[in-house]
Each structure stands twice: as structure tokens, then as C-alpha cells.
Design a protein that fits this description.
117 residues; 3-stranded antiparallel sheet; 11 strands
Length: 117
């Protein structure tokens, strides 16, 4: 049996009467359960994913998966258009990709409408 003095107090209510149950600690007073393993550290780095869940990085080539009407353009940006050398940005809007699209020029795209090529 484990030594009760080495068990951590409950993080929810602060009770000292916790006990170990396999890989979990349990508090009998508030019924809170938590893992004995240390929590992974939160990363400050932002992860941008495409429409199917692939991680995007600067310089990737992506394909547009949805036809888009572009203001000021003579026609739509069609699904299947390949966009090379993207740049990820965090400018406070929901558009997180800066790129140059052939025939359209510089654009901002959402990662939810592209997939990694």
C-alpha cells in the first residue's frame, strides 16, 4: 500500500484524503479523479490545420477545395486551384494564409478551404 503522506491533495477541493486507483488519484470527498502523470506543457506555437486536419507550415503548397467568389475579380477562384509557397499569418482575422494565386494576385485564405497538396 502507498504512503498516504506522499499522495497529493485534491486539486479541486484541497482534501488530504486522496487515494490511488491504478493510474488515477481519487478524492473521496468531491469524487474528483485526475491523472498521476504530469500534464503536458502548453505550447505557445500556433498550429494551423487544413480542411482535412493536416498541419500546414510556411512554404507549403495547397489546393483550394471550394469554389470562391472573389470581390473585384472577373471570375471565381475554382476548386482545385493550386497555390504554392503559402505564408501563415496571425493578423487577428480568421484568414490565416497569405499567398499569391496565379491569375488573381495576393490573397488571404482560410485554412478551412484548402488542403495540403
Amino acid at each position: 500500500m502507498s504512503d498516504e503522506a506522499s499522495l497529493p491533495p485534491c486539486p479541486k477541493c484541497g482534501s488530504a484524503y486522496t487515494y490511488a486507483d491504478d493510474a488515477l488519484f481519487v478524492c473521496p470527498e468531491c469524487a474528483h479523479e485526475w491523472s498521476a502523470a504530469p500534464a503536458p506543457e502548453a505550447s505557445d506555437e500556433r498550429v494551423v490545420r487544413d480542411s482535412v486536419g493536416n498541419v500546414l507550415v510556411d512554404g507549403d503548397t495547397v489546393v483550394v477545395v471550394k469554389t470562391l467568389q472573389v470581390k473585384g475579380a472577373s471570375g471565381p477562384l475554382k476548386a482545385g486551384t493550386k497555390v504554392k509557397n503559402i505564408r501563415l499569418v496571425d493578423d487577428g482575422t480568421d484568414h490565416d494564409i497569405d499567398c499569391k494565386v496565379e491569375g488573381f494576385g495576393a490573397m488571404k485564405l482560410k485554412s478551412s478551404i484548402v488542403k495540403k497538396a
